[in-house]
Amino acid sequence: MRSILAFGCLAACAGMSAPVSRRPNAFSAKTSPAAPRRGPALAPPIKGDRRPRRRPLTLETARHLLNKGALSHDDAVAAVRSATRLAQSPAPRHKTRPTRNDVDAFVRDVLNAPSRDWEPTERLCAVALDAHARDGDVKATRQLIRAARSLGGVQPGPVSFCILIKAVGRRGEKLPEGREKATLTKSVDEAIKGCARNSVPDTVLLNAAVDAYARLGAVDDALHLVGSFGDYGVQADARAYNAALKALVRRPRDALALRRRMRAADVKPTAVTNATLIHTVALDNPARAQRLLPTLVRDDFGRDRDSLNAATAAYTSVIGAFASQGAERAAYDVAGLMRRRSVPLNAVTFAELFRAASTATKGSKRARRVRGLWRRLTKDRIRPTRGCYDVAIASLIGDVPDPACLRLALDLSATMRADVGWSTTTLNLILAALYASDARAKEARSTYDAPVASDRNAKLRAAERLFDRAERDPRTCAPPDCATYTIALRARARRGDLDGCRQAFRSLRDSPTLSVDNVAATSMLVALARAGALSEMWRLLEDMRNVEMCEDLPTPDADAVEVVVRALARARSGVAADKAIALYERHFGSRGDLGTPSEACVQAVLLACARKAPPPKGLFDLKQSVRDDVRAAREVLDGLEGRLDADTVRDLRQYARETLAQCETETWRDGAGQRPGGRWTEPESASDRLFSQKGWNSVDSGFKLF
């Protein structure tokens, strides 16, 4: 009996001390609902015909299986899709993510692989094509379509052409108005015709074409395509009309006419249609759009996700319109209306509120307002995006950052770096703020009631460290772009650091991924002009004009040429003045290729004409002859007739009279004994030189003149 009791006690102690197994026991009693069993007991039973989900393969693993011949088509598609999603999401610190080029290279390896026992399809290529299209890389999209056709025999269908049209639209959205946009518009037409040669374009492709036309600003083409859907055997749906409405955001009357046309075609408007109309009206009259919000955004907006997002977008567009006008209180009223109607706020809504606070407040008040909005965003449990962070930092920095705003901006940038990572825009904002605060600290003067820190170069050193870090290791902060180098170049030019400007410009030219744009090249010309390096400035301009020899430099625009003209005109040299006049006539003359010059550029050329003035004549030399400076100035001003308005030309003629000589309006004759614009000075005598060197008396110079 004692042995049985002892064995029971030992078994009880062992049961208390042994770890509880999480595997469900078939012999144990059922647990009550108040105390559910933990672990796999809560998971639904796995059915026999259902495969367990597994993580998609990485590109390295998929390439290894491809070389062995063990990679299936579905695994290849899953690996490409997973890699493209990782490439779009921000990478954590000190970690790398696959890029679009890695995905492109893997797809080409799959197309070239001889060991696979399956044929590649358009579905596999479409995933990689979509990654290029999201970034607007039209060239890479076309190259991959050609590679799929030549290497794997995959003929492009409606899906491939639809993605190509999407890439064209995204590319055109980033470009200003010009020749390249017109070329991209023709590319959309060619893509539709190319798809029609192989198959019939469907509604999805035509909707993408309308959206691409809207992004390119081709309003007439978008409206014409919406009306010609019947030629392809399909009917325009609400998505086509919504895409066309986006192209008419600056034309409210045409947008309302398109909506009437939509009703006449028996196409029911959606929540996106109403949100687009509110955005169109808000750009013209925000107060009217605010009154239309309860009517166009119905109370049943929460029935599906699209209606909910459209309602948020409609209210956010009105807030953005008030923010653009600086009406902070009206923007807050619309946000309060959103809360009363239970319309969810998102990160874009708070970004517009940050922008409204920046336009209506200044200094420490702006910092308090932005801090309060950020607390509200955190309280609402809204995950801020990179764009929201960037807008908040930009609203704090402004034109001239206040110390309180700068501290808060740096704190937000630190939070952003740990949360979603920096973007290139963030890097440029912080660099510009540090450089601007350094210039402001040098201008500040210390007083007894407002002392200034002795270390005035602290912000400058911080900016230079950040710029060097972005150059050496972009993964730790953000990759620099051309604007990053331009910011550093301009800051160094203001400081008089010509060697630093040369180093930054040389690094930009040697970068394998970046190209010099006109803004960076013009900034370098300004830096050289400030330092007085006119010969180097002239050589850089000649290199920019020599496109065949210097392909890494852009063609000079009007701003670059004006910088060189004004710098040469200010130089006290007749040769420089002749070069300035010749450069002006070549680019801004009657046969120039850069259009109409600015008023400051014309004044600089007139100043260069004054350098050609002859020495003063004697008192009794009454010979009436037209001087070289007057003739050159007359040619410049006569070439501006009809190109500038009459008042501007009249002011420029008055400036020429004051600069060159006092002469008659019709003849431009020079009177006897007149000095050309007061520019000529009499030669110094011995006493004049002594006065300029030694000063007035012995108190100033130690030499007594009288």
The major β-sheet equals:
none
Radius of gyration (CA) equals 35 Å
Low-confidence stretches: 1-49, 662-684, 690-706
Distance between the termini: 137 Å
Number of strands: 0
Strand content: under 5%
Shape, principal axes of CA atoms = globular
Secondary structure tally, helices: 33
| Average predicted confidence as pLDDT | 80
Category from helices, strands and their pairing: mainly alpha
Fraction of residues in H or I helices: 55-70%
Task: Provide keyphrases for this structure.
706 residues; disordered N terminus; disordered C terminus
If you had to describe this structure to a student in words, what would you say it looks like?
The chain has 33 helices and no strands. α19 packs parallel to α21 (424-443). With 706 residues, the chain is an all-alpha fold. The radius of gyration is 35 Å and the shape is globular.
SSE topology sketch:
Blueprint: H1 2-17, H2 59-68, H3 73-88, H4 100-112, H5 122-134, H6 138-151, H7 158-173, H8 179-198, H9 203-216, H10 219-227, H11 238-246, H12 252-264, H13 271-284, H14 286-296, H15 305-325, H16 328-340, H17 347-360, H18 363-379, H19 386-397, H20 403-419, H21 424-443, H22 458-472, H23 482-495, H24 498-510, H25 518-531, H26 534-545, H27 558-570, H28 574-588, H29 599-610, H30 628-638, H31 646-659, H32 686-694, H33 698-701
